[in-house]
Amino acid sequence: MLSTPLSRKDGESFYKTQLELMKQEKKTLQERLEALEKENRELKKSVHELTLAIENGAKGQVGGGYNTQFVFDIDAALDGDTNRIDHSTDNEPSGQEEIRFSCKINLEAHAGAVYCLAFSPCGRFLASGSFDKSVRVWKVENASDRPSVSIHGAHDASIIDLAWSSDSTLAYSGGYDKYVKEWDVASGRSTPLTTFSTSGLVQAIQISRSDNLIYVATTANTITWFDRRAPGGDEESAGVLKNDSNVNTIYLSNDNSTITSGDRLGFIKTWDLRKADTKPTSVTANGPERRPITHVHASPVLRGEDEGRLLAVNSYDNYLRVYSRGERLLGGSPSAMRVQHVLRGHHNRNWPIRSSFYCGKDYRPYRETTGWNSTNPHEADDFEFTTEEEISDYKAANGISGSLLLSTGSVDGNAYLFDISGGSGNSKLIQVLEGHQGRCYSVEFHPSEPVLASCSADSTVKLWKLSRASSGANS
């Protein structure tokens, strides 16, 4: 009996110790659970983060110093307001607009987010690249079938961009494994014809009209190009332009004389490829905040012209800007390009989203739209409009064939369709294309027909076709 108080004391001490251990274990498990939930949330938010983890888990910050392996701001993307869409009143869909697209086909073959698309120049094929590391090629005329070409394991990391040769027989893919690969689509071979190695993660690729030169934008702050004709072209580059930040996107002029880049510091730069000087010939800040640029591309070439008049620029600030290129293309003032339209309604803050132009076969531009100065003013007067009333009447008679459209993807899973046929600032959001269940990373118009392809984090590709248009439109 004398030992009872001691036993009780020992028992209380034992239980206190066990309780403390359980509390500590609970705390450890709670911390682990929170860490797993955060990791799961980040993985759901962007497959990019998983890909970049291969590159030593690189992280960066908007502005100031950053790691060159970083591609986009995942921390800012996880902000609580990232899913809120700010629809501006001036870009509400127009109820009077007769141009309407509807989803006709769902293409389902990828096992991961589909990030990039490219129609072949002939318009018969559509290539898609995915985070599942595969390239698929679909025949547009029977796209509801399985892909005509499936290249599994095309890269060792996510596929970021695609391009085609001018004769539509070769496709090119760029990936986060720092390689660009050339594929013989005509034969359906699943092994690359050639592999080109870069010093950084591939962000974008462009092919010269001669098909001889391949230009690559990278996270190593460079634009590198390779000559397919050179022996050992897969080992050494033919040239390099050095930038002061990640080059996220490039657009090559039709005559291969200049290349336009968009970078992580928010600058649009033009480089003259004919000069030995590696400094850009022009630099334009994209918006007051200079948010990172994710995509630049020119509008289709019009009758009697060598280059597209407009440049569309996607960036991380929920705006799609359209710049006039007229004066610069004609050797005019070296001042910055002029903003023509600022499109709102879509959502791409902190996310890499791409856009695409559609130009109707009968489209005629508005003279004020670009300040374009033709060498033959009488011919220009016959081709260009001078008033908004003329444009309105012409579009009423010609529908989509007389229109210039611009579509963009969006983080909310929708594709947004704008009519930018009018003069400066006169643009309309005419339709929101709903259907994807994840971020819509990219859209791509067919080279000649009113057909739009969109791809998404939901692993699908959708083909949208014209479902309703005014009497003058092509159906």
UniProtKB/TrEMBL annotation:
Spell out the residue ranges that the record assigns to WD repeats: 107-148, 152-193, 433-474
Q: Name one Pfam family in it.
A: WD40
CDD domains reported for this sequence: bZIP (cd14686)
Q: Which SUPFAM superfamilies match?
A: WD40 repeat-like
InterPro entries for the chain: WD40/YVTN_repeat-like_dom_sf (IPR015943), WD40_PAC1 (IPR020472), WD40_repeat_dom_sf (IPR036322), WD40_rpt (IPR001680)
What species does this protein belong to?
Rhodosorus marinus
What is the recorded name of this protein? Answer: Coronin
Please give the coiled-coil regions recorded for this protein: 12-53
Which PROSITE patterns does UniProt cross-reference here? Answer: WD_REPEATS_2 (PS50082), WD_REPEATS_REGION (PS50294)
Taxonomic lineage of the native organism: Eukaryota, Rhodophyta, Stylonematophyceae, Stylonematales, Stylonemataceae
Tree of life domain: Eukaryota
Sorted UniProt keywords: Coiled coil, Repeat, WD repeat
